[in-house]
Amino acid sequence: MIKIAPSILSADFARLGEDIEDVRRGGADYLHFDVMDGEFVPNISIGVPVLNSVRRATDMILDVHLMIDRPVRYIDAFSKNGADIINVHVESDSPENIRAAVDRTLELGKRAAVTLKPKTPAEAVLPYLDDVSLVLLMTVEPGFGGQSFMYDMLDKIMKIRSWIDSRGLACELEVDGGINPYTAKLAAEAGANVLVAGSDVFKAADRGARIALLRKNAEEAARGGVKQK
Ligand code: DX5
Ligand code: ZN
To answer: Which domain holds residue 134?
Structure first.
């Protein structure tokens, strides 16, 4: 089953509660929460206090994407303030500290996830694959919404999907960046089952209809995709 995760990076922060309620009613599965520190990526977005408010405003599953240096320092804070899924970039610290971030997330009873930038090889997930509940693949350079999907990421999606399936893991495979009704099909056909969509959902006049369209296209493509062969 395909899950749609609207990214609030493209919401109107002055009316965030209403925008979140709109996508919840529109059938979104997860709410994607992009944290940027101006160091790991060249942009600054939102952090712990906003997460705390969002947690109190909705019961949606909060999928927190940490685009920050040395995220192990902040796992407790994001966990205590409402994250359900905590994504850390493998490029953001030493392997030992990424492992410590994953372990701490699990100790706190949250879902751990690792994330890869476009240029990072698929193999970088292997040390974590048996322990995480989700792998997040960037299909744009992280830092900004509204960029174009990188088609050369499709091979990486297929590769990681094949490892997940051959190991019999329940791990989800999420893609982030440039998702629209067309790229949703390609990503799902390649084996992604969670689609982050920022601008495509939040800029739509009818967000519920847009979420339904993304899901329909992706589910049709997944049925004919590599997974079913
Ligand atoms: C980019 C963020 C994305 C972003 C996606 O660094 O991680 O979640 O919001 O935006 P769109 O869907 O507009 O590409
Ligand atoms: Zn993101």
So the answer is: 3-223
